[in-house]
Amino acid sequence: MTSTKNDTTNEQPTITDLLDQLDNDPENRNNLPDELNLLPLREVVIFPVLVAPLGVGRENSVKLVNASVVGGNRLIGVATLRDPSVENPTLDDIYPVGTVVAIRMMGQTSEGIRLIVQGLSRFRVLEAIQTTPYLRVRIETIPEPEIPQDKDTAMEIEALRRQIGNLFKRAVSLSPELPDEMQGLVNNVEDPRTLTDLIAGQTPRLTTPERQEILETIDIQARMTKLMELLAREVQVLELGSKLESQVSTELGKSQREYYLREQMKAIQKELGEGDDRTQELEELKEKIEAAKMPEEALKEANRELDRLSRMNPAAPEYTVSRTYIDWLVALPWAVFTEDNLDISAVKEVLDADHTGLDKVKDRILEFLAVRKFKTAGTMRQPILCFVGPPGVGKTSLGKSIAHAMGRKFIRISLGGIRDEAEIRGHRRTYIGSLPGQIIQGIRRAGSNNPLFMLDEIDKVAADFRGDPSSALLEVLDPEQNNSFRDHYLEVPFDLSKVLFITTANILDTILPPLRDRMEIIEIAGYTEEEKVAIAKQHLVPKQIAEHGIEGRIEFTDEALTQIVRFYTREAGVRNLEREIATICRKATRAFAENKLESLVVTADQVTEYLGVPRLDIEEAVHRASQPGVAIGLVWTPVGGDIIFIEATAMPGEKGFNLTGQLGDVMRESAQAALSYIRGHIEDIQAPVDFYQKHDIHIHVPAGSIPKDGPSAGVTMVTALASLFSERPVKPLLAMTGEITLSGKVLPIGGVKEKVLAARRAGINTVILPERNRKDLLEDVPEEVRKELKIEYVSTIEEVLRLALEPAPTAANDVSTNKPKKIKSDAAAVA
Ligand code: ADP
Question: What mean pLDDT is predicted for residues 191-199?
Fold first, then answer.
């Protein structure tokens, strides 16, 4: 705090002090410096000639005072803050007119330092010449105005002086704060300028802006008139107060007395212009509470809080807390809802118009809504929809479409990384600055009590010591409980049962099981190249063209879109695709604006021109996989399918086996199984029989920062090892996936569609799949993809190796010499 108050009774300057200082015109008064350290004041205005105490607590202000006293001239500028709550004020926060003061005395207190200062002259701030650690400003002192000598004006001033004097005397006699001797001021101070300033500084209950206005009023008649008006008001209030007081002081019951005191407070507040606002504020809140149509429990709580609020001092911190709480209660859509449009065919139209393809998904959504339509009549019990799929496949935009089609508000929060129950359910009001949790905040933003509420990344909710957010989520999502959801902050229940919750996730596996049980899973896998081109044509391109305002001037050919999809994006969804299209639109817009182009048809060539030469993943794949010991696997990741390289190397040693690349337990186990299988079939793969006895084996799965797990890399591990042991490289552009058993069987795996699409994206031409996944492929993978890839179905490891490995080198005999001919160093393998 910069300063506190200057009217602490025990430090009130005595009348003698005040009079004393007037006799001896303070030194330097007419010879003040034009640069000063500027101390901002809170709710205090210091006038010239007045002596006043000041408390200084803020660290930078203490520095300022010390610098001005030690080695300084003890002169500083003081000026008042426009808004007393500002913490680190800049020049803009401070009134431009202040007072040069001399520091007369300085003492240490527990809260900082205490000063006695004396005002010398008004000044105006010209500019800041230093802002840290404290303000230093260039100033212009404002001399006191000459008193006009003509008779009329002089008389007018004298009349004002007397009027002010009388009002002040009256105020002193009525006011408990002012000692009676203050009346002496009026008789002893002749100069009307000095008298006005002194009284303006002494009169209690003038507001800061009022005092500041007097400080800023230089013209003497104007200054006196202003003060007279304020004094008249003050006297009126005091008179009213004493009238009430005398009534009250007659023997009255406690409650009556309180009533009168309250009336008195109201009257005073009203006189001060505050009461109006205050009563009006309370009235408004009361109306809002009624208008919000809360259920009984909430209404009771709101009224109780309002009652508390009406008895609080608006300056107290609890006032804001209480006020904020009522604001929250009245802002919630207790009784506001939107009418549902459950016409299934209309919803279908909107979904179709907004999204290309996704037929299965749309059907599931429509079924879900149809069921809901019939259930609304009876119970509301229904599972929550959960869209699972990689980023950019349209989960969010489907949600928006559904909301749009049903005529509901749409609201979305991300649960990613939420660890604390309070983020869902809010903090108790006892915490400073506490707020309701995300759910209630979302409902408030939605402005209706039946929005479509999307909870993103429900697979990324984690639990830790701060509490388990999933239990709060369970309550939110449980139709049995969510009609009386209790937020810690609100304390009263809110009915969430009409909300349509839809969750989204990238991975199914990490959704906590109890949550998963509540949900109806709808999987949205990645798109094929053709689907992406279609989406681009029908949605992304028109959207970007409209956003750039270049309708009719640009066109994309199918080849161009295919080119972007194939060579510039590697993703399951269409986010990057949209981004690349936006890049081209942006560059074209610029060319149009610079008149370099009239219109543009984007062809494959233009794509290269605008986006640069594409990276060629295929070359890399061929190159890396040409070494014996390297095989390409297909994996499923939360962001879609991908290819991985599994690299096996051997170095002289003895049966060591090392695995690196952040592999999970299941993947490590399948590596062990692969090794055991190879050791058991060493002759079948035409490798030296004692190869393992003489070597240490190291399997590395690059991109080490990404944790990898799952059994589906089994076939790839076994192939990499067989390739290493036998020195037969794996055929180029071939990738595989499948779980293995020790007995040499190949078992089916999940995520077939994602993996096959990833293989095609990466330019793979042959894919080895478990026989038992044949059905998935036919069901899930579109024909055009199947046509372009050669798919080999296998049931045994033997078949995998036969299909995957190049024939044994012609000098196969060398193998029997037991001498490892080409051992790659570890570093080379990883590079
Ligand atoms: P997600 O929520 O799955 O990460 P978004 O909903 O944010 O994905 O989709 C990314 C962008 O792709 C959006 O602009 C969306 O409209 C568009 N999009 C995705 N799939 C389709 C589709 N099938 N048809 C039309 N636009 C789509």
Answer: 90
